Structure to design on (180 residues):
């Protein structure tokens, strides 16, 4: 039985078991380099919406969960709009990502704090390996939409990133996205 379906134009998931989370600029305190710029913007600005299909309970070993994210374009100072980013609580758990539309970057940082990025373009496939924090930034002019599949037992450690951040940030340097 097909429990949910995705609108390939918008990235929205629909179905009886689909939930949605909205993150605004107000939810991102301290996550951008230029906190004053973030605080000076309308706090109800929607950064991203995440849709996920309720499946097996979180924590179920061997099960997979999936969802889509619609990340809006924009800048805080010279830093591209991005998701909060996290390690998995079970550090060895990986995650799969497919870009549906838009332009962006998957930013990956290992436990030695080495940060790299993979360009996201429609149809690009990505794996965030285990032991690797991941976040997505939108470098385009329209929404960036992508599908993510993750192990139901991975758990999410947002605190490490809230505390120590990533070692590099994706900035708009004279119109060119660069990890700095
Ligand atoms: Fe993840």
């Amino acid at each position: 039985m097909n429990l949910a379906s995705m609108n390939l134009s918008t990235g929205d998931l629909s179905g009886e078991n689909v939930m949605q989370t909205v993150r605004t600029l107000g939810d991102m305190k301290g996550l951008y380099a230029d906190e004053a710029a973030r605080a000076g913007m309308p706090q109800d600005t929607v950064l991203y919406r995440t849709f996920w299909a309720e499946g097996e309970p979180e924590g179920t070993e061997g099960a997979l969960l999936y969802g889509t994210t619609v990340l809006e374009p924009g800048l805080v100072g010279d830093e591209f709009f991005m998701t909060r980013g996290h390690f998995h609580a079970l550090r060895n758990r990986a995650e799969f990502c497919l870009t549906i539309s838009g332009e962006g970057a998957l930013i990956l940082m290992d436990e030695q704090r080495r940060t790299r990025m993979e360009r996201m373009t429609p149809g690009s496939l990505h794996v965030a390996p285990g032991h690797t924090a991941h976040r997505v930034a939108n470098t385009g002019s329209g929404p960036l939409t992508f599908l993510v599949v993750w192990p139901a037992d991975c758990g999410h450690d947002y605190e490490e990133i809230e505390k120590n951040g990533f070692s590099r940030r994706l900035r708009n340097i004279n119109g060119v996205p660069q990890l700095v």
User: Anything to note?
Assistant: The chain is about 5% helix and 45% strand. The radius of gyration is 16 Å. Helices lie at 35-39, 159-164.
